[in-house]
């Protein structure tokens, strides 16, 4: 058993996975990671065919160490990261040795960063999930001095890797499908809504995110509606006519009308939009939204193609001379822990389109 | 149920893996009964590919596995089924379970009972009698985990929610509005009127099962004195003297 020691906590740190779907009839919302693509990126970096639980870090990380050698994937919003003082790449996986200090600072762009130990966090399971659900008191924020148990890293000898993560950390266009109450809004309200640029407001947490704009979007049916089931991605128009995007820990029923639903593939853009970030919405026909159906195995396969072993600059390798740089004749296609960059050998990696149609 | 009232069901998209059957936009008893019938039918005979069913007051959510079915196929089948339910209204499905929950009404445990009785135009004792003797069912569970929407109370109880929403109530509070009752498992803020208290906790995350009530359950309150309620031990199971009977 390996321990992940939390020496210092700087942000809001919680254990998250894909949450607990299937309990809406009990009033329990799914919960789980705010940026689910970050969990997929981590699994791809760690060559895991299942999603591993991660520590979600809102705003800032902390200081960590391990009791056994452990690869740790760093995904989601880029944060400053250093191992014993040497900067290490975000969107990457790195081996941490006992005695080393992994320092994770504040976010550079975005809101939620994730660290995923390769051996898998072994924390309390409730309703088949390890996700902390703050709003219903299941689990709680991690604290200074805690040690979380992990399984052993199945392959600590694997090289450091990085992933070409999808662009989702600075707002932009977010795709929306119609929901059960879209028709309660007049056409001119809908058309203005899809032409408006919104600003992520300061108010937001794991339950929802408030957006701001000069315009207001209301429905004349709002006051008499029966409470209805609601879910993550729903664009709820609260009393003041501004959208509040429901997120992972939203309640299961609500009485405010919803103008539409952000598709699952684009919800990480809302999660990662820091206050002040601009977002616009694009209306997608339901058939098109269905074609972009959220499918974890498919997303994981796509993310795996975005990973590559890290090419390190020899100038940053402090113990360069301890590496065996030439070891006889090579076929040239073996994987090596350290590849020296050779001019003209840079491989091109396709950008992820963000659309995963399987 | 009135004979001249018809409800028109619609099947609408709910996110990338869900559809919602809506019998009405606004709360009405006919739509609530139709929700209970549709939920019972779906549970007895689940459509292919449906992975979750969750009823609300006038709507039912179904989540589906896109590998097993398509939105269009599921929506068409649900529309046929819900139209047939709307065309021939049935009585509420027979209940499977009945809860008897000791509760105390009025006084410090129900500071708005007298106000509610005044709005109903009856004495407080009569309001308590109606709360305890009405045929009450759990119509839906939601908002917070395990939180029941119970109904329907007689027509006179169609009291709007209060305009001021800053009314904080303790865990165990029994609250009324719009012919319905809800019970809080934790302290909360509400616009519903606070008429009573029980020790019953529908949701405790550390308990197995974490949530006790289910849609369709019959609810009966057994009025007890404040001293009897405090005498019912605050056991870790959160039942506080509540009794469950299996009816079939």
Give a quick summary of the entry.
Chain A has 358 residues and is mainly beta. Chain A has helices at 36-45, 187-193, 267-272, 286-291, 296-304, and strands spanning 2-9, 12-16, 54-58, 60-66, 70-83, 86-87, 92-96, 102-117, 147-150, 161-163, 172-177, 197-204, 208-212, 228-229, 234-237, 243-246, 253-254, 258-262, 278-284, 307-309.
What does this structure look like?
- Helix content of chain A is 11%, strand content 32%.
- With 358 residues, chain A is mostly beta strands.
- In chain A, the strands form three sheets. In chain A, strands 1, 2, 3, 4, 5, 6, 7, 8, 9, 10 and 20 form an eleven-stranded antiparallel beta sheet that branches. Chain A has a seven-stranded mixed beta barrel with strand order 11-18-15-16-13-12-19. Chain A has a two-stranded antiparallel sheet with strand order 14-17.
- Chain A has five helices and 20 strands.
- In chain A, strand 5 and strand 6 (86-87) form a beta hairpin.
- With 248 residues, chain B is an alpha+beta fold.
- Chain B is built from five helices and 14 strands.
- Chain B has helices at residues 29-44, 71-87, 113-120, 124-133, 226-231, and strands spanning 10-13, 18-22, 50-55, 59-64, 97-105, 136-141, 148-151, 167-169, 173-177, 180-183, 188-190, 193-197, 218-223, 243-246.
- In chain B, a hairpin with a 3-residue loop joins strand 3 (50-55) and strand 4 (59-64).
- In chain B, helix 3 (113-120) packs across helix 4 (124-133).
- Chain B is globular, with a radius of gyration of 19 Å.
- The two termini of chain B are 26 Å apart.
- Chain A binds chain B through residues 21-22, 24-28, 126-127, 136-138, 177-180, 184, 221, 224-229, 231-234, 251-254, 261, 263-264, 286, 289-290, 292-295, and chain B through 12-18, 20, 22, 24-27, 31, 51-59, 61, 63, 66, 71, 140-147, 149, 186, 203, 205, 210-211, 214-215.
